[in-house]
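Hey, I'm writing a tutorial for new members on how sequence and structure tokens pair up, and I'd like a real worked example in the thread rather than a made-up one. If someone can provide the structure for the chain below, I'll link this post from the tutorial.
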Amino acid sequence: MFAYKALRWNVLAASNQPDQASIGVITLNRPDALNAIDVRLRVELDILLDQIRRDDRIRVVIITGEGRGFSAGGDLRSEAGPLGALDTEHDFGAFGAYADLANYFFNDLRHVVIQRVIRKLEELQAVTIAAINGPAVGIGLELATACDMRYASERARLGEVAVPAGFVPESGGARNLPKLVGIGRAMEMILTGEIIDAEEAARIGLVERVFAHDVLLAEVVKIADRIASAPYLSVRQAKALVRRYWDHNKSEEGSRAELEAVMEITRTADCREGISAFLDKRAPEYRGPSYSPREQQR
């Protein structure tokens, strides 16, 4: 059996069916990195979501984070090397003449996997709930917006920070956020990287409700219990109908456009500058098309 290291998976019983484990809890478990989503966590989520999809006993899935946050988004430290954003050259191993190409291949692969994770999460038949226990930014926010419902701790901070960091929303953020908060507010958050608090998130409809931090998970489990205790087929069909209308603009073409956009951007000097600036804790100096051809190359 596959051993999860970057997440935990627990299953709870519904109150009216004590012998039936029907509420699953996924805990992102990289607290030292504020649960930033590195390559291993992406792969583990991909594997676990397949496991959940095959288990008809699971009626509700809760996603939360270990420690002081939900997820800080993509792990820029693990992305820096393959993108050439570090002073030292990254080495994936003995690829010989293909060593330079390996960087491109593995960078592209991480984006393929996270997009597949989001798609599988959105397509689960079980009801999905994000229990946002702290910062949820970038891919962390996109993971939450892919869920059916979102509940936040009073300590939650939410933002779509990809663009200011030299990236682009790649995991349904450009599709889901506008449907939750409106096109203008979503555009403002995406283009400026604004971080909002839990109360503002509730006010604009990004989260359903805000709870005191210490009771967040307990309150979300109560909600999950009510859902899991309802008639099985009624819940499944109700979610399917709501999702049918929600996903009206979801398409393979849109997913490909997201993937192609982020792959193009990760080959640019501005992207490398954004990562370097983040790791150096300084303001980035973006130059867009003004880099020389030599500077554009890694």
